[in-house]
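Researcher: We're reviewing a set of sequences before deciding which ones to prioritize for further study. For each one, I'd like a predicted 3D structure that I can look through quickly. This is Protein GrpE. If possible, include the structure in token form so it fits the rest of the review sheet.
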Amino acid sequence: MRKWRVMAEKEELENQEEQVKQDEVLDKDEQKESTEPTWEDRYNEMNDKYVRLYSDFDNFRKRTIKEKADIINQAGSDLMKDLLTVLDDFERAIKANEKIEDVEAVKEGFRLVHHKFEGILLSKGLKPMEAQGEAFDAELHDAITNIPAPEESLKGKIVDVVEKGYFLKDKVLRYAKVVVGQ
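Model: Here's the predicted structure for Protein GrpE, in token form for your review sheet.
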């Protein structure tokens, strides 16, 4: 009997060892499964990345729009600040011209204010467009009317400038309104 008991205990120990080995193999398989992301985990991760990237881009877009608006406002305020000096000159000229009888002094005052105003605009990149006697160019000029050319050499050219055109940093700001000879 003792032999049977020893054999049974030995067999039981072997079974237990085998069960432990099987449990270890199962644990390793479970660990592998737990470390490998499932499709749902991958989907959630990619979706999270997408949402974050979209939010970052949206914030970037809003920030650049705000920065552009700030730059435009700053540029406008700089121009207004410079033009205030011309407004001050006009106010002084109005006060000075109330009691003055010398017309030449009034004319000279207006010429000075005009020169100052023109200087400020030129310093900001404004440039007058020369059109008188030039060939008509639809990219630069706006033809109001055509008239018979007073001379043969003025056919297809600008005879009169009704309203001056201007460039702002080499881009047409206002087209010149002209009369073209035919």
